[in-house]
Amino acid sequence: MEQDVSDISATALASHPSATRALSMSTIAFTVCFAVWTIFSIIGIRIKADLGLTDTQFGLLIGMPILTGSIVRIVLGIWTDRFGGRLVYMATMLAAAVATFLLAFATTYAQMLIAALGVGVAGGSFAVGVAYVSRFFPAARQGTALGIFGVGNVGAAVTKFLAPFALVAWGWQSVALIWAAALAVTAIVFWFTTEDDPVVRERRITGAAPSRSFLAEFAPLKDVRVWRFALYYFFAFGAFVALALWLPRYLIGVYGFDIATAGIIGAAYSIPASIFRAYGGVLSDRIGARTVLYWTFAVSGLCCAMLSVPPADFAVRGIGGPITFIVIAFVLGFFMSLGKAAVYKHIPVYYPQNVGAVGGLVGMIGGLGGFILPIVFGALNDVTGIWSSCFMLLFAIIVISFAWMHLAIRKMERQAADPVPSLARAAE
Question: Which of 136, 164, 226, 343 could cross-link 19 (Cys pair, CB 3.0–4.6 Å)?
Answer without folding.
Answer: 136
